[in-house]
Amino acid sequence: MNKTPWVDRFPGLSRLETRIKSILLARSAVLDLPRGTVIFGPGKSPENMLFLLEGSVRVQQTSESGREIVLYRIHSGESCVLTTACLLTYDDYSAEGIAETDICAAAIPRSVFDDLVAESAPFRNFVFEAFSKRITDLFLMIDEVAFQRIDVRLAQKLRELADGAESIKATHQQLSVELGTAREVISRQLQEFQRRGWIVQSRGTIRVSDGPALDNLADERG
Length: 222
Prior knowledge:
There is one protein chain. By secondary structure, the chain is an alpha+beta fold. It folds into two domains: 141 residues, Jelly Rolls (Sandwich), CATH 2.60.120.10; 70 residues, Winged helix-like DNA-binding domain superfamily/Winged helix DNA-binding domain (Arc Repressor Mutant, subunit A), CATH 1.10.10. It is 46% helix and 23% strand. The chain has nine helices and ten strands. It has a four-stranded antiparallel β-sheet with strand order 2-6-4-5. Strands 1-7-3 form a three-stranded antiparallel β-sheet. It has a three-stranded antiparallel β-sheet with strand order 8-10-9. A hairpin with a 5-residue loop joins strand 4 and strand 5. The N and C termini lie far apart (46 Å).
């Protein structure tokens, strides 16, 4: 188990003055949550600011028609931009956060977050730097969904998920959520990739049979 104080595992927090770090450590609680836990959801108000120490959290939104899209993921050493936004505006969540793995996170109460944002410029800078970076990432994701060809985006996602391996464990539904499109669109595109000899599909698994061809498509700007 990592014995380093949790604030020192976040570069922005490790540079805070000793008094502020002491407040964070004294007023926080370290939580261990199992995979699959719904950490927050639409209509709920955040009571804590979470700093992820271990694991991965998927933040996704569901439309009125039931279509889901992954907005972003939170990894160790990161905080949640949606939680930050809701804390700053006293608003409810509009999306849900789900633990993709077992996670460990430090939680500071809303009251502590409010006090430190008001009185500590370094803490405030940490919050808004993380916030602005994630907002930029979200704009890039919106641009991809709105303007980039689905075949290019699917090839990019398959390459990302494969990470150098030949087989990918993913269903058509999971890929549709990742890319913010209908499952039928993903199914048609995967069938086309298979027709070209780039992949071979089996239940819940996609095997890449022509990596260079898939890479060429993924590197296009559509």
